[in-house]
Specification:
Rossmann fold, SDR_fam, globular, Sc_DH/Rdtase_CS, SDR, oxidoreductase activity, alpha/beta, SDR family oxidoreductase, about 50% helix, 7-stranded parallel beta sheet
Length: about 270
């Protein structure tokens, strides 16, 4: 019960990493708020979890409406009197328009960067005064392996996720004296519906060839990193980036070729 009675707010949390984070925090004893645009779906998810004895509630948030970040914070504060942990999990990219530098329109690039950065900036700006009054808190921002490693496509997404890392470090420095900790989790390829439905099998297999732990991550494994940053176990940790990516990008660039060659020689 590492999060006993802590109030946790998670954005984009009706599926994937967000939903796994809701479940993990609730299991650790937290009072959890599921922020979502589709309140009907969120309520259904909350009811399913509450039948297990958890404490999960819903609150409205639409990433395209910046005011909804402020109103979701105010609603939780009105109901609970505090927010101990804010998990900014939202992130988006349109694979049809978010391409490389030659083929991505400025308007599409700007739109992707703006919405992803706003999801962290506006919500953090809204919650910090409340965390200051209550004596501290933890903000956890979900970036991506795409924010650590340059890619041949999705330039808007990659730049925004990299910017979230640097933004998080700035906020960490600026709020540390108020006992507010800000940390980042960077998932690698994770077996969510978004990945399984939007990325071809060929791409998934190619990605795994360059991942030393040769499998996709599980949403629950990303959520475990979030729970650590949310808990008092990380009370002396701020401005840090935890990559949960199976070792992607760590070996020599010819890692995949060497593994293939080694396999051939064994045969």
């Amino acid at each position: 019960m590492r999060l006993q009675d802590k109030v946790v707010l998670v954005t984009a949390s009706t599926r994937g990493i967000g939903l796994a984070t809701i479940q993990a925090c609730a299991k650790e004893g937290a009072i959890v708020y599921m922020a979502a645009r589709n309140l009907d779906l969120a309520q259904q998810r909350a009811e399913e979890l509450n039948q297990k004895g958890y404490r999960v509630h819903t609150v409205y948030n639409d990433a395209t409406k910046l005011d909804s970040y402020r109103t979701m914070i105010e609603e939780v504060i009105k109901l609970e009197g505090r927010i101990d942990v804010l998990v900014n999990n939202f992130g988006t990219s349109n694979p049809q328009t978010d391409l490389d530098i030659k083929h991505t329109k400025w308007e599409d690039f700007q739109s992707t960067v703006n919405i992803n950065l706003a999801s962290v900036y506006v919500s953090s700006q809204a919650v910090i005064p409340h965390m200051e009054k209550q004596g501290g808190g933890s903000i956890i921002n979900i970036s991506s392996i795409g924010g650590l490693t340059p890619d041949i496509a999705r330039i808007g997404y990659a730049v925004s996720k990299d910017a979230i890392i640097y933004l998080s470090k700035n906020i960490a420095v600026q709020t540390a004296r108020s006992n507010i900790r800000v940390n980042v989790v960077c998932p690698g390829q994770t077996a969510t519906d978004a990945v399984m439905n939007n990325m071809s099998l060929e791409f998934q297999e190619f990605f795994l060839r360059h991942t030393p732990i040769k499998r996709m991550g599980k949403p629950e494994e990303i959520a475990a990193a979030v729970v650590y940053f949310a808990s008092d176990e990380s009370a002396y940790t701020t401005g840090q980036v935890m990559a949960v990516h199976g070792g992607f990008g760590l070996p020599t660039p010819v890692f995949a070729d060497m593994i293939d060659l080694s396999a051939e020689q064994k045969h």
